[in-house]
Specification:
The protein is of the alpha/beta class. The chain has 2 domains: 3-79, Arc Repressor Mutant, subunit A; 85-264, Rossmann fold (3-Layer(aba) Sandwich), CATH 3.40.50. The protein has 11 helices and 9 strands. Strands 4-3-5-8-9 form a 5-stranded parallel sheet, with helices on both faces. Strands 1-2 form a two-stranded antiparallel ribbon. β6 and β7 form a beta hairpin.
Length: 266
């Protein structure tokens, strides 16, 4: 299922709805979309099933036309942005979990192909390597903040840590100190979660075998971060999951995303 194609189809029918004197059939739609009819037919069928589009057959001369029109429900869905709900997913981590970041992107893509999700939502991954340009002249975290959605404004926040915490960061406006960009993003997301209930936060700790060269200072910072969740009077509320392999991480994340979306988004 192609969410963007559905949106484009509805938009075209919406714009053509006032041209009653013209015959606008499926071949015309295919021409405006820029794809063969056989490629867009499944999306039109979905829109018909949702009562956003109706098709009527009409014979003019020797030719049979399949006329397409957007319905009142389709107009409402398009104008109110209700056709598909976009769910932004912010991926935060230091550089040592590059493979896990790629896995997270693949898991999100996998989720987008599920009928239970694709019929209602589009999961939009926010990862700096996919979005942020190689801009020189300002601090890396400032660049990330400028080109990506703020972590606190995302719908779902995924944080992954293994054996590195990252490079210290100072907030330019408040001068607040953070152990790394990852901690900066996590705490902003966490504070927003405590204040308004979002983003939903998924936290993972890699328990894979460590690399031969270990930065013990970085590792101790990771441990100190997770210690903040321990005890009856823990500084940070909630819990995290651990994984022992990249394959296990992918399956855990897939299950958690599917569960969060099913239970918290309508």
């Amino acid at each position: 299922m192609d969410i963007h194609l559905r949106q484009k189809i509805l938009q075209i029918l919406y714009e053509k709805r006032s041209q009653q004197s013209q015959t606008f059939d499926r071949e015309d739609l295919a021409r405006f979309v820029g794809k063969p009819w056989r490629e867009i037919q499944p999306e039109v069928a979905y829109l018909e099933e949702k009562s956003y589009v109706v098709t009527k057959s009409k014979q003019i001369g020797t030719r049979i036309y399949h006329l397409l029109n957007i319905t009142t429900q389709g107009i409402d869905a398009l104008e109110k942005g209700q056709l598909i709900q976009k769910i932004s997913i912010f991926i935060s981590s230091p550089k040592d979990v590059y493979n896990e970041r790629q896995i997270a992107l693949h898991v999100i893509e996998r989720c987008n192909k599920l009928r239970s999700i694709s019929n209602r939502y589009f999961l939009n991954p926010l990862a700096y390597e996919e979005i942020v340009p190689a801009v020189v002249g300002q601090r890396p975290q400032t660049t990330v903040d400028s080109y990506m959605m703020e972590a606190s404004k995302s719908d779902i926040f995924i944080c992954i840590l293994w054996q590195r915490m990252g490079t210290p960061v100072t907030h330019e406006e408040t001068n607040e100190q953070f152990q790394s960009g990852t901690e900066y993003e996590f705490l902003h997301a966490y504070r927003s979660n405590q204040k308004r209930g979002k983003p939903y936060i998924l936290l993972y700790r890699g328990m894979k075998p460590y690399l031969s060269e270990i930065d013990h200072e970085q590792l101790s910072r990771v441990q100190a971060f997770f210690n903040r969740f321990e005890g009856e009077h823990a500084e940070l509320k909630g819990f995290y999951k651990t994984y022992s392999s990249n394959e296990e991480f992918g399956e855990i994340l897939f299950h958690d995303l599917d569960t969060i979306i099913a239970e918290n988004f309508t």
